[in-house]
């Protein structure tokens, strides 16, 4: 019997891109006819007719499976749901907008079966077609997180990745709620081959990531993969205390020798404001970690399924 590959496709308002996606992917599946496929679409609470499109795709082709969430849980949750339900010997995650070229699948499969890798991942070498300000902040984020985190988080890495069972099972062991896949993929280890490609613009519809959403996601990545900001806070606190101690000694000595003329209140005021600002900033940092710990501890499910055509066997 041929080996089975599970393709996992998170979809949020992808009604316009799904027909293109299916056309290209079906062609690639036909070309790789030495393999069996299942395509698991995860409808992440779309507000358009994505679910209807998925239902009709499933009706036309028995390889199509879908899981539909009760609301929008985010791409990370959608990927996790798909991976959890994948039955394949291999699983691949890909976007519905054809920004992850399905044609690369063959090369990825070759890497994991012939070249001894456990997963084949992809990274964009250009950010062509993206707003420059977004690229700038993205670059800065990767530079900062790679300085602080132990796990390498590759700049331009996509979530588009094919993995074998061993890799997939390791990934499924990580049940955290604050999921940052780019880090999780690296954290599980194993051997990964990186394939590079030029950025492709989405085929239809528009990006679901606003600047604010990306900002929150980057904070999630930092908080999930490093506690360095907490160390920075402690070190800064220590330095400030030392500085304060020295200046106290200085002031006392000066008073004993020269008396106490009232001057320099403006600089005092700005020092107080500055220190107050730093304290608030680091309280915010602590708050971030506390908030993440709080959501983990509540132990809520990562997603809730409203409808699906998967046979329930667990
Ligand atoms: N997506 C999702 N839930 C969300 C946001 C996005 O499932 O809350 C899916 C989306 O349908 C697409 C993929 O994640 O298949 C990547 O999203 P998008 O193309 O908007 O991101 P970009 O490529 O612009 O980074
Ligand atoms: Mg996209």
Order of helices and strands: EHEHEHEHEHEHHEHHHE
On the 0 to 100 scale, the average pLDDT is: 87
Class per helix and strand makeup:
alpha/beta
Largest sheet: 8 strands, mixed
Radius of gyration computed on alpha carbons = 25 Å
How many DSSP-defined strands? 8
Detail the poorly predicted runs. Answer: none
State the end-to-end distance: 24 Å
- Summarize the amount of helix as a percent range: 40-55%
Number of helices: 10
Biggest sheet strand order reads: 7-5-6-4-1-2-3-8
Envelope shape: elongated
The small-molecule ligands in this entry are: uridine-5'-diphosphate, magnesium ion
Query: Approximately how much beta-strand content do the residues carry?
Result: 15-25%
Written account of the structure:
- The chain has 314 residues and is an alpha/beta fold.
- It contains ten helices and eight strands.
- The protein has helices at 18-31, 50-60, 75-85, 105-114, 132-148, 165-173, 181-187, 211-225, 228-258, 265-298, and strands at 4-11, 36-43, 64-69, 90-93, 119-124, 157-164, 192-197, 305-308.
- The chain has an eight-stranded mixed sheet with strand order 7-5-6-4-1-2-3-8, sandwiched between helices.
- The longest helix is centred in the C-terminal third of the chain and has 34 residues, at 265-298.
- The mean pLDDT is 87.
- It binds uridine-5'-diphosphate and magnesium ion.
Brief characterization of the structure:
The protein has ten helices and eight strands.
């Amino acid at each position: 019997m041929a080996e089975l590959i599970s393709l996992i496709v998170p979809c949020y308002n992808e009604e316009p891109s799904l027909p293109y996606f299916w056309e290209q992917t079906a062609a690639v599946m036909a070309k790789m006819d030495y393999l069996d496929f299942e395509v698991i679409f995860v409808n992440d609470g779309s507000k358009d007719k994505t679910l209807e499109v998925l239902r009709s795709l499933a009706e036309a082709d028995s390889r199509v499976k879908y899981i539909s969430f009760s609301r929008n849980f985010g791409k990370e949750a959608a990927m996790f749901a798909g991976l959890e339900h994948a039955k394949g010997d291999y699983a691949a995650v890909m976007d519905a907008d054809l920004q992850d070229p399905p044609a690369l699948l063959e090369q990825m499969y070759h890497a994991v079966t012939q070249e001894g890798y456990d997963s084949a991942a992809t990274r964009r070498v250009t950010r062509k077609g993206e707003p420059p300000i977004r690229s700038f902040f993205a670059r800065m984020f990767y530079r900062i997180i790679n300085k602080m985190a132990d796990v390498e988080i590759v700049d331009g890495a996509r979530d588009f990745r094919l993995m074998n069972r061993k890799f997939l099972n390791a990934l499924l062991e990580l049940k955290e709620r604050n999921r940052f896949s780019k880090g999780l993929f690296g954290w599980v280890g194993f051997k990964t081959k990186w394939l590079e490609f030029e950025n492709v613009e989405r085929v239809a519809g528009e990006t679901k990531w606003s600047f604010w959403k990306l900002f929150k996601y980057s904070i999630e990545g930092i908080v999930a993969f490093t506690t360095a900001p907490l160390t920075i806070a402690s070190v800064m606190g220590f330095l400030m205390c030392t500085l304060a101690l020295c200046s106290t000694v200085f002031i006392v000595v000066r008073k004993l020798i020269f008396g106490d003329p009232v001057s320099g209140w403006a600089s005092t005021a700005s020092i107080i404001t500055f220190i107050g600002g730093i304290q608030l900033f680091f309280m915010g940092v602590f708050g971030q970690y506390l908030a993440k710990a709080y959501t983990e501890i509540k132990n809520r499910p990562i997603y809730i399924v409203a409808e699906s055509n998967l046979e329930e066997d667990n």
